[in-house]
Design a protein that fits this description.
heterodimer, A: mainly alpha, Methane Monooxygenase Hydroxylase, Chain G, domain 1, 87% helix, B: alpha/beta, six-stranded mixed beta sheet, four-stranded antiparallel beta sheet, 10 helices, 24% strand
């Protein structure tokens, strides 16, 4: 076997990517748990960890940069580096949105945290969480079928967002006293909907990694 | 102006169809050594096709079958077919000189003749009977322009070709090949002895020439194959392992051996 240094660099890249996946999954899980259980301490801890994710993204970017510049990867190696570069952008955005959700939960405070009254938001939280962990799992297992299945659930998330938005408009029309909280809720819902989109992107890049551009058609 | 040939054939009617190169069950032996094994490929007209593979895999041997250079090798036996432009080039009665005039070749090491730049380029037209200075001047200029070196040498055409740099010598060899008005240009590692700038000039030239010529290039430089070719063929131990568009070969090769070779894991 030739190119042992190159092999070691590719192995390190994959490990870094898997570590970032695990960290982002934990972030989204914690932000949603803090939302559902009105756990302000957990929300604060989640928000504070975003810098760690940003640094991990930067580290992976540097690794990809070095490999592209010095090793001229082709075929599956190239797809791995290219997919990694695309995926870390989505993972970092998911983490940003987890931080944004955590900050809104902190803004609510324990007393005003009335999330339990919004059933569709809870459903959206559950789906978004499943989509992130599912897309990351599909990547780890290199499972194109799972990636396809996860990507399809995004329609459900979009549908729930529209229903929730309609519900919130009606609530504001009836009683504007809680408008501030409702705006917080709609922002969270939008973040969850965007998290779903990023999870779909991760599924797409998993498919690309496995089969190249033809998988994206 | 068309190059006229003594026996009244013109280069245009040597090939009767598009100059695709098709091999059918091509086997080649050097004595007992089986150098090409059942090679079937279809090289498309006016495209650049790269042949890659480890040393000794048969890519240069295949290149040489396209203008019957292997005829000169003792003990060389060939079975199967090589059809170029609708013509079986190993059939009885083929004029090999005319074939080689239509299928030009450039070698790894620049090999200009020890004569002037002008005489190098005028060599083939003179061989095929052109004597008038006006016609020769026209062909020499046209060929040097096509080889992207006219501006560099137009004021010193009578200087010895061996005074040129390696990169210029190689482009002169390309000009010399083009002066015969071939349809196909075979290039056997044409830039392996050149610096990056000369290499870039030859690569640029390939991309320009493919508008009018079918180009087949043997290269050990994977990046070069990726940069300039439309199709890539990977050979291993005399076998054509994979032939596909260059994009497919370098992004998603079908055969694991291709993937391992292009990513530098063996070879």
């Amino acid at each position: 076997m030739y190119r042992l240094k190159y092999e070691a660099e590719l192995k390190k890249l994959k490990l870094s990517l898997l570590t970032l996946c695990a960290e982002v999954s934990a972030q989204i899980e914690n932000s949603i748990t803090s939302l559902i259980s009105c756990d302000i301490a957990l929300a604060r801890e989640t928000a504070s960890r975003d810098d760690i994710i940003d640094n991990m993204e930067l580290d992976i970017e540097k690794q990809c940069h070095k490999i592209l510049l010095r090793e001229n990867p082709v075929a599956k190696d190239f797809r791995e580096v290219f997919a990694a570069l695309k995926m870390i952008t989505d993972l970092e955005r998911i983490a940003d949105q987890a931080e944004d959700i955590a900050n809104i939960v902190i803004g609510f405070g324990e007393e005003r945290c009335a999330v339990k009254n919004f059933e569709n938001l809870l459903k959206m939280s559950k789906i978004a969480l499943e989509m992130v962990s599912g897309s990351v799992n599909a990547f780890i297992k290199q499972d194109i079928k799972l990636a396809d299945k996860i990507a399809q659930t995004d329609d459900e998330l979009d549908f729930l967002f529209l229903k929730l938005k309609e519900d919130l408009i009606q609530r504001i029309k009836k009683n504007s006293e809680y408008a501030e909280d409702i705006i917080g809720i709609i922002m969270i819902a939008k973040y969850l909907e965007r998290i779903g989109d990023h999870a779909v992107n991760i599924c797409e890049w998993t498919k690309y990694f496995e089969g190249g551009l033809k998988e994206l058609k | 102006m068309k190059l006229k040939i003594k026996n009244n054939n013109t280069c245009d009617n040597f090939f009767t169809q598009k100059t695709d190169i098709i091999t059918e069950n091509l086997n080649l032996y050097y004595g007992n050594f089986h150098a090409l094994k059942d090679v079937n490929c279809n090289i498309k007209e006016k495209m650049v096709t790269s042949m890659i593979g480890p040393s000794g895999c048969g890519k240069s041997t295949l290149l040489k079958t396209f203008n019957r250079m292997n005829d000169l090798v003792e003990g060389c036996k060939i079975s199967g077919k090589v059809v170029i432009g609708g013509k079986d080039i190993y059939a009885n009665g083929i004029d090999v000189s005319l074939l080689r005039k239509n299928v030009g070749m450039v070698f790894q090491k620049p090999n200009p003749f020890p004569m002037s730049i002008y005489d190098n380029v005028a060599y083939a037209p003179r061989t095929f009977g052109i004597r008038k200075k006006g016609e020769l001047d026209y062909i020499v200029q046209k060929s040097l322009v096509k080889a992207a070196m006219w501006d560099e040498v137009k004021d010193r055409l009578n200087r010895g070709a061996l005074t040129l740099s390696g990169g210029q010598q190689q482009r002169l060899c390309i000009a010399r090949a083009l002066a015969a008005e071939p349809k196909i240009l075979l290039m056997d590692e044409p830039t392996s002895a050149l610096d990056p700038i000369s290499t870039a000039k030859i690569e640029e030239l390939c991309l320009e020439l493919k508008e009018n010529y079918t180009i087949v290039i043997v290269t050990h430089n994977m990046q070069q194959a990726g940069r300039i070719s439309d199709y890539t063929a990977f050979f291993l131990l005399g076998e054509l392992v994979e032939f596909n568009t260059t994009d497919n070969i370098f992004e998603s090769p079908e055969d694991e051996r291709t993937e391992n070779y292009i990513s530098g894991r063996f070879g």
